[in-house]
Amino acid sequence: MKLTLDISEEEFDSIVGADMEVTSTIFLDFSSDIRGVYESELINSVVNIYDLKDQVEQQGLQIEDGSLFVFGKMKIRIEGVKGADFKFVEGDFRTGCKQYHTWPHTLNKGDVVCMCGGNLSFLSGYYASAIIVAEAKHKITLTFDTDEAVPIDTFNSDSIKKAHSKAMEYKHTSSSGKLFNLNFIQDHLASGRRVIRSE
């Protein structure tokens, strides 16, 4: 069952929490202009639903615990985005090589700052932190499949261990892929961009 939570009125970081024992993996979108709507995904993240119980129950789900460990993909959608600052760390989070990217923005009273992060999905050994700025009139939703989430009591070590046993291991591919293989291209694309032979 798909569950969508509107967290527009909540403190983003306190709803989408980091779990120090399991590091999230983050899937980012890098368009040239991120203003308007920005979407990203996380796996292996904790969603604190204590203040969202009414929304959860209205969608037909009864959960006793105050949090969910979402081991599957959780889509984050932020509407009303003004800009963002991203940090990428290669290696150790504290001492590794840092790089930054900014989509320019101006902070105005009432704007909302959303912060999340995780291991970067497409580069092994990199951690990404995203700080996204949304205007006062914004909407933030989280959507995930409840079959890919388990209740977690963050004050109970047995509950935490049980949840972490479900953690999804994301494997980076070091393959160059088919389309960087000259022999494959010659066999299937000839000299153009149209595929001339099926695999």
Explain how this protein is built.
By secondary structure, this protein is mainly beta. The protein has helices at about 10-15, 55-60, 155-165, 180-190, and strands at about 1-5, 15, 25, 35-45, 45-50, 65-70, 75-90, 95-105, 110-120, 125-145, 150. The strands form two sheets. A five-stranded mixed beta barrel has the order 3-4-7-10-9. It has a four-stranded antiparallel sheet with strand order 2-5-6-11. A hairpin with a 6-residue loop joins β7 (about 75-90) and β8.
Question: What attributes does this structure have?
Answer:
199 residues; mainly beta; 5-stranded mixed β-barrel; 4-stranded antiparallel sheet
Topology (elements, then pairings):
Layout: E1 2-6, H1 12-15, E2 16-17, E3 25-27, E4 36-43, E5 45-48, H2 53-58, E6 67-70, E7 74-90, E8 97-103, E9 112-120, E10 126-145, E11 149-152, H3 157-164, H4 182-188
Parallel strand pairs: 3-9
Antiparallel strand pairs: 1-10, 2-5, 3-4, 4-7, 5-6, 6-11, 7-8, 7-10, 9-10
